[in-house]
Amino acid sequence: MINYYCQPMYQPVYYGNLSFINHSPAYVATNHYKSNPSRQYPDVDSTILEKSAKSMRDIMKEASIVLNKLADSKSFANKVMYAAQHSDMTEVERLIQSTGITSKVKTTFNPDGIMLKLSSSIENVECCHLTISLRWL
């Protein structure tokens, strides 16, 4: 836990020719703990970061597919919104998957709009996700 010492600084407040009216204390936090410059860090291995970035790139392509379908097809957007307003979660998920995406999608909605969370895994561990929030009211 980092401890901070707060040193008060008083700033007097003057109003025109009147004498001292009030003071408002301002505190400055100072960190008395310095980092250790001789600390050894492990060697950098960006393999997982690279795989995550590639997975995210794929998720973004799939997000574009869904967004294009919602933006370009009024009938599709109406079907999604109608199913959501009737709390038909299976139909909403079926419609989203019918766009041809392969990513795992978690869909939630409320009276204001819909939220899609597309995610991907590397070696059975979720590496990245993309959340899309769209408003319809």
Portion in strands: 35-45%
Structural class: alpha+beta
| Radius of gyration over C-alpha positions, nearest whole angstrom | 27 Å
The overall pLDDT, averaged over residues, is 83
Determine the N-to-C terminus distance: 45 Å
User: Based on CA inertia axes, which overall geometry fits?
Assistant: elongated
Which residues sit in consecutive blocks of at least 5 with pLDDT less than 50? none
Q: Tell me about the largest β-sheet.
A: 3 strands, antiparallel
Count of DSSP strands: 5
Number of helices: 3
Query: What is the N-to-C succession of helices and strands?
Result: EEHHHEEE
| Order of adjacent strands in the largest pleated sheet | 3-4-5
Fraction of helical residues: 25-40%
> Oligomeric state of the chains?
single chain
Quick gist of this model?
The protein has 137 residues and is of the alpha+beta class.
